[in-house]
Please model this.
Amino acid sequence: MSPIRSIAAQIINNVASRGQSLTDNLDTILLSILDPRDRAFTQAITYGVCRYYPRLLYILNQLLKKPIPPKESIIQALLLIGLYQLTDMHIPPHAAVAETVDATILLKKPWAKNLVNAILREYLRQEKNLQEKIKLDAEAYYAHPDWFITRIKEVWPMHWQTILHANNAHPPFALRVNVLRMSRKKYIELLQTNGYLARVIPNTPAGIILEPAIPIERLPGFAQGEVSVQDGGAQLAAELLELEPGLRVLDACAAPGGKLTHLLEREPTLATCIAIEKDSKRLARIKENVSRLLLPAPQLFTRDASRIKTWWDGQLFDRILLDVPCSASGVIRRHPDIKLLRQANDIKTLAKKELHLLTSLWHTLKPGGLLLYVTCSIFPEENAHVLQQFLTYNPHAYEEKLEVPWGMACEIGRQILPGMQDMDGFYFAKMRKKSVSDY
Model:
């Protein structure tokens, strides 16, 4: 009896009922799964259930005669896993049903055996009718929460369907070549020599998409620091910072570290590079990546970046990368658990925190210095609206327009929507502090 479905049910229950991160759960649990095929299956099924959670929950509610009690949420998670196998995984129905029913024993919920069996078999009997019903329910059809669909329609009336469909797609396997070690052209040749197909990500000097995706341990040169996994949109930040030798640079919210390591690859001869991250575990991962890529070590602080007195030595920065914690509404295709974890009222709360971070860190920027404001959100409340408020109360700040061939112009900054040019959804804006001569 395979434990994989019971493990997957525990992960989904942790996300849906306890508000935990899918990535954090997988990072912990996959270490205990030795068979690579089982690891891949666990990842595929948990990502899939999160990706289509609103749709699967709609189907389940059509089949249940009464709701499952909250104390038995693990069984609801198991039923969603069973339904996902039947709707999207092309697993033979008899095997999917039998294995999912067996998982009730491993979960020590033998009472649920008949329920799970009955619900999954009833789905198979009603499959055609249920698939037609899905088309009549927006939340089920688009597989997004109602509040999200409503808001996206409001702020992106010409693009909302494209955004929702992009969020449900599997993201491309995007790489960034460490150009300190190897050119992009040579790395593509190395991939081709090893039998892999790769193509350039437009508007990036080091970006590549590999098709199909492979485990990172099989990536040529990964262990040697020749390449990193990073979305093409995220790779734009280092290019926009206008880095030069001898500058003093701050990465204010550094985890997971992709943008930090990229700016160090882009300009390894900075005078100072300081990185701030609240989470000590995530900071440890940054250290690992800096070491793997053989980059000059930045100064790392486990702090709240907005509390500048706890880490700042009073020396002003030439450049600040402010990649603020946000709703992550632009990276749902890569982190589908956001559909379960985020609520409508989170956006206003996050926007306040983002404005507070921006206002606090502005004091550490030199006159004439540049702050790059970045989010992976597609909500204007977290993007242009934050900067509009900031500019209202900071007369020494002004926007430097982004003259670039990617994304869409906003009132302030530029927005990349999910799937544009094979990129995730990102927002960028450049804020320049007036020099003394401008006053």
About this structure: The mean pLDDT is 96.
